[in-house]
Design goal:
The protein is an alpha/beta fold. The chain has 11 helices and 6 strands. The strands form 2 sheets. It has a 4-stranded mixed sheet, covered by helices on one side. A two-stranded antiparallel sheet has the order 4-5. A hairpin with a 4-residue loop joins strand 1 and strand 2.
Length: 253
């Protein structure tokens, strides 16, 4: 739980130095969307360096308005799986992740990506999250904490809202993204009357679709899903999501 005491990493922040706003966006929670949006907030006389830039310490943004963007943890996991394993991206081969998970969880069925090559199935993916710390040796744990795994690390480990060095004034949720984003921009003195686009939609339907979630999560044992919910329990509690929602979806006729 040391992550609860640590501030967000500087690399997680999307910044607009002109309007003094900072948004911490975990992987697979809309980071590309904010990169695009912030590039449009400064007007024609502002350089990209002024708007989307880096800082060397959190002290430099102590007077900024701050936000954290999140999404339903179950939806995020499905999105991360589809993005990493189904669509032939190079991410799944970082640290030989795909092959090692298939080998480790060979007692579960594998799947095929959109090129027809063997890929980690959704049950194997969830198994690695729930039991990876038990199943891999200490010198292999980076496999499930770094690289592609950053896309499914809990939110609080990437954008901790409980540290006084980065205390957010706003929590932006993907489910109410347009409303929340417009309100945050308005509070920050930025005209919210602009075009908004959520980028990086996954082919084959959005991962928030209950039918799609039911299709994938129904392949996973309920006992494993209970363990999964406990792993992300802090995220559910901190950001107001329902840990039992996946069972509500699965029980819907």
């Amino acid at each position: 739980l040391s992550s609860l005491l640590s501030p967000p990493g500087l690399e997680m922040l999307k910044l607009d130095k002109i309007h003094k706003i900072s948004i911490c966006v975990p992987f697979k929670a809309g980071s590309e969307t904010w990169r695009y949006l912030l590039s449009s907030t400064g007007g024609n006389n502002s350089s990209a360096e002024q708007i989307v830039s880096k800082v060397n310490s959190l002290e430099e943004i102590s007077d900024y308005k701050k936000a954290i963007q999140v999404r339903d943890p179950y939806e995020r996991l499905l999105s991360a799986y589809r993005f990493t394993f189904e669509h032939g991206t190079s991410l799944k081969n970082s640290n030989n992740l795909n092959a090692r998970l298939i080998e480790k969880y060979s007692y579960l069925p594998t799947d095929k990506d959109d090129t027809g090559k063997p890929t980690v199935s959704f049950p194997q993916f969830i198994q690695s999250i729930v039991y990876g710390y038990r199943d891999f040796s200490p010198d292999s744990l980076s496999l499930i904490t770094d690289g592609a795994a950053l896309h499914w690390l809990p939110f609080y480990m990437q954008c901790n809202p409980c540290n006084k060095e980065y205390s957010p004034t706003t929590i932006i949720k993907m489910e109410t993204w347009l409303r929340d984003t417009q309100a945050f921009l308005n509070q920050s003195g930025i005209d919210p009357n602009r075009s908004f686009y959520l980028l990086n939609a996954t082919p084959g339907g959005h991962s928030s679709d209950p039918d799609l979630m039911k299709k994938y999560y129904s392949k996973v044992k309920r006992s494993v899903l209970l363990e999964l919910g406990n792993i992300y329990k802090i995220d559910f509690q901190l950001f107001g999501y329902d840990q039992d929602n996946i069972f509500n979806i699965l029980d819907t006729v």
